[in-house]
Amino acid sequence: MSISEPPTRIGPESAGILMTPEEFDGNTDYDDLYCYELVHGVLVVNPIPSEAEGGPNEELGYLLRDYQRRHPQGSALDDTLQERYLRTADSRRRADRVIWAGLGRRPRPKEDVPTMVVEFVSVGKVNRRRDYEEKRKEYLEISVAEYWIIDRFHRQVTVYRREPGKRAMQVVREDETYRTKLLPGFELPLAQLLAVADKWAQA
Length: 203
Prior knowledge:
Helix content is 27%, strand content 33%. The protein is α+β, with helices and mostly antiparallel strands and 203 residues long. The chain has a 6-stranded mixed sheet with strand order 3-4-5-6-7-8, sandwiched between helices. Strands 1-2 form a two-stranded antiparallel sheet. It has a two-stranded antiparallel sheet with strand order 9-10. Helix 2 runs antiparallel to helix 4 (190-201). The mean pLDDT is 94.
């Protein structure tokens, strides 16, 4: 049980309360103008993703599904979803996008750890530390194979990979294209995603 009784309805005023993962999972009454995470037993409340984050995320989803439908090796992609929770022992992290690859079947989200996780960096030092440090550590610990951090401010994507006996990092610049052996033939044109982010940032 949590130390403090969680409120019936979850909203921005609930930030900082203590909850168990079971209490968090079971809550169905919340203010949907915000996003919620459970971080080491503490409820964290965030604003919903901005258009400059959501736009490129949708573009990435389109690129992935187009690869799945059209590429000869597109069957390597099992599925992809946006805004999904990843479970750890005491946390529920909300990922911008998750990707399952290599299963050869439809994923079971509550059981199958995503093969890849993608985060689009939000404004602010706290958010940057969360994406580059905290989530990187947590995602790789639960056996996510690749973690992509798409950073519209630094104009790059940083990829962390789990490899036998080590964790590798690769930085891809705006004018470069990222390729991963987990999705043979798929190309991530970073400039295309950043152009979508820029369009919304200037709106």
